Amino acid sequence: MSSSTPLSHSIALANGELTLRNRAALAPMAGMTDVPFRTLAWFYGAGHMVSEMVTAKPELWDTGKSRSRRVLIDGVRPQAVQIAGHDPLVMAESARRLVGEGVELVDINFGCPAKKVCRKAAGSALLNDIDQIQRIVGAVASAVDVPVSIKTRIGLTLGDSVGTEAAIAAQNAGAQLIVMHGRSRACRFKGEAQPHRLREVRQHIHVPLFVNGDVIDPQSASRALVASGADGVMIGRGAMGQPWIFASLLGRPLPDAAERLDVIGRHLAMMHEFYGDEAGARIARKHMQAYLQRWGAAELTSSFMALADGDAQNQWLFEHRDRLLGVARSAATQMGAQTPVAA
Ligand SMILES: Cc1cc2nc3c(=O)[nH]c(=O)nc-3n(C[C@H](O)[C@H](O)[C@H](O)COP(=O)(O)O)c2cc1C
Predict the structure, then answer these.
(1) Pocket lining: 16 vs ligand 1, CB cutoff 6 Å
(2) Where among 249, 284, 302 does a domain terminate?
(3) Which residues make beta-bridge pairs with 26?
(4) How far apart are CA 300 and CA 297, in angstroms?
(5) Quick one: 74 and 15 in the same domain?
(6) Which of 112, 170, 245, 284 is catalytic?
(7) What is the pLDDT of residues 267-295, one digit of tens each?
(8) Catalytic site includes residue 187
(9) Which partner from 50, 63, 241, 261 sits 20 to 30 angstroms from 200, CA to CA?
(10) Are residues 328 and 230 in the same domain?
(11) CATH label of the domain that carries residue 205
(12) How many domains in the chain?
């Protein structure tokens, strides 16, 4: 049986130009939320997803990595790609090319703390220069006729409100959705996210606001919404190893253990096909590690890691099916209910 939750409701962007089918979004995570993973997250209800970060640099446009990151997924709406860079003209040109390929929303990364990105004055480094944020969003918004969103952080440190200034500047320059991670750049991914720090942003912006950081289940989603006053949530690491998490956020039944094993099998097949056998098998390892950890079967991880190709991985899953079903059954018995393994 399914019942709606505050996250189940659709939300309009850009005066109704685009509608997100619900308010439970998947966060972009480079190396994780690729086409295969997003396909599954969408199937289980994610209401909005942007691609892994793609550099705006024209000389890297045709690399295998950039190309695979901007592949569009059949049936997903809006088709959204995240770009990172620092030069407004280059960012605008990259957005134009993306829209030419069918992209329906361009997201700009003002949150990534990675050295590789910040050394080039992109990502969260731009929180040092609010005027540049305004110039970039303005250039991108006027270059394309699709909505532009930004993803940023609450500040450079917990002691400043630069994130609020960035959100206001972005909105003034034409951003139609703001996603804010409740950590500062200095926090990187450590310490608890502080959704209440979005309250200040909420008071100053009228476009939809999504809160990100440490949302891992319906309870934390509801706490983050209340604390922040945001319109929706964006989930990152909480979705690793459980792309079906969106069902629970939307009040829908979670798949049972047999269905979850089928999903994992489908995920493996999609990775082998999307990346080719060798690269697909390599990428599958980190996803399987997350699946097994959530399953309560982390001790099986090393035997999976040793497998060299797609066939061996498929065979491994086939051979371990009964054992994994047994682990799920005993976890359900211990919990005294027929619920799936806890997240
Ligand atoms: C492995 C990894 C890769 C990430 N890649 C991106 C990215 O490409 N673009 C982006 O805006 N944020 C990226 N992030 C940040 C997440 O989108 C998110 O803001 C962060 O993980 C906090 O949310 P969470 O607590 O729900 O995981 C990444 C995070 C992780 C852990």
Answers:
(1) no
(2) 249
(3) 49, 235
(4) 6
(5) yes
(6) 112
(7) 999 999 999 999 999 999 999 999 999 99
(8) no
(9) 50
(10) no
(11) 3.20.20.70
(12) 2
